[in-house]
Amino acid sequence: MKRATRFMRERVAYRGGYVWSYLPDFSRRWGEMEAYETMIWIQPPGTATVGHLYLDCFHATRDEFYYQAAMEVAEGLIAAQHPAGGWNYLHDFAGEESARRWYDTIGKNGWRLEEFHHYYGNATFDDAGTSEASQFLLRLYLERRARHLRAPLEQAILFVLDSQYENGGWPQRFPRHSEEERYIRQITFNDDVAGENIKFLLMVHQTLGDERALPAIRKAMEIFLATQQPAPQAGWGLQHDADTLAPVGARSYEPEALATHTTANNVAQLMNFYEWTGDRRFLARVPEALAWLDSVRLPDDQVRVAGRHYPTFIELRTNRARINHRRGSNARSGEYYWNYDPEQPITHYSQWRPIDVAALRARYERLRGADPTQLAMSSPFHRRADFRLPRFFTTQNIEVSDMTSNRGAGEVERPTPERARELIATLNAEGYWPTPLTATSNPYAGEPPAEPSPGDYAQTLVGDRFDTSPYITETPVTGISTGAFIQNMSSLLLIADSGE
User: Fold this and answer.
1) DSSP letters of 159-179?
2) 227 near 165, Cβ under 8 Å?
3) pTM score above 0.85
4) Which domains does the chain have, with CATH numbers?
5) 422-447 average pLDDT score
6) What are phi and psi of 484, to 5 degrees?
7) How far is CA 414 from CA 410, 419, 491, 496, in A?
8) Percentage of residues in the chain with pLDDT exceeding 70?
9) Rounded to whole angstroms, what are the CA distances from 83 to 17, 38, 213, 305, 386?
10) Biggest alpha carbon–alpha carbon distance for the chain
């Protein structure tokens, strides 16, 4: 573990931060897209994830080496923090001009990654980057109450509080921009933006006793009720208009529609809220949402992808599935469009979802028969003197509902001795686990022509040679994977765990 960590700290990290993968000679590196040498990636599994890992290793071994490693990550995140308190997907330590050059070349030409097409100069809640970084700073601060961590932690808390709309919703990005940039200012449920912010605020409330957290959480809970659509389409969209609260489109392959997976997630959140409050308003319309999901479930003979019975996007009023397609060959010549035809859908964004409606309905029935007074007694809104954040973050999935219990390690089983020996044996002499880098991308090849290149790119992950989007290669190069490092170290730390 120490040898692998030393390699990452001394050879891989850039100012305490990491991207997702590297060629062995470091001539190319990637986060979600190809990155400059001076960049770090905030978006998981990036810099903050590695910080959580180091702190987990410290908890498992009590070795100061890992605490210092975690502190290096924190310094990198603090340097990358937006003045408003949040984080962008990535940060370029070479400065503003270098970051803009990346967005104007690599970012702009990632055909399917429209969130990288523009440099907004602000921070994002998307993909849990800001949430994970904020949670890591909180965890590290609580370890020894290091004074220099308190100000950036406060900035992160303020970012969540300041960006919240009066109606309780959060935009995808903040500080907000002009009215015409609708995608980044709308109330966002996609990627569990609201749930991640609620989770962080609950952690802040329980650990710091911060009185600002609960009013913000209560407002956030109300936006789930306010944005649920009327029956018989009692669901939610990925985004809702910040003023009218109606479902709206997001990226060009996220049309104005209700989203089945978002609806299932929001139903689960409503049941969380009922458990915390005993307020039956949060249960009242759950049956309507479940009935709507039942109404759009595909019969077995219409299922296109095994186990995925629910179309992702459902048209308002008609209840028909909107299926996304694309034509052209790159970000300049290509375009996305939708229709009702399930043939030739895009493959980089699933058009059908696996949703366990039966499990949601069973949970609802259990809660419907529970005593609301008893439920509210264990609410995370009541600050507990014995509350502790989980010792390990990288070995388990920390959910909002976990804030009601004092969880420790044990969600992931310890590796077998055979697996442990394999991990030790496959760590190479340099100190990393050689990993096939199945995700790669085309290098930036200049501005694409207006005319599409020959070929059919309707269902590929990448377009022509001008498309800088990542894709899966059948001939991967062996390299250095931050994700593999996190996964393997998480297994080893469970073996090394002292149980303290």
Assistant:
1) HHHHH--TTS--BSEES---T
2) no
3) yes
4) 2-496 (1.50.10.20)
5) 98
6) -65, -40
7) 8, 10, 7, 10
8) 96
9) 18, 20, 21, 44, 34
10) 65
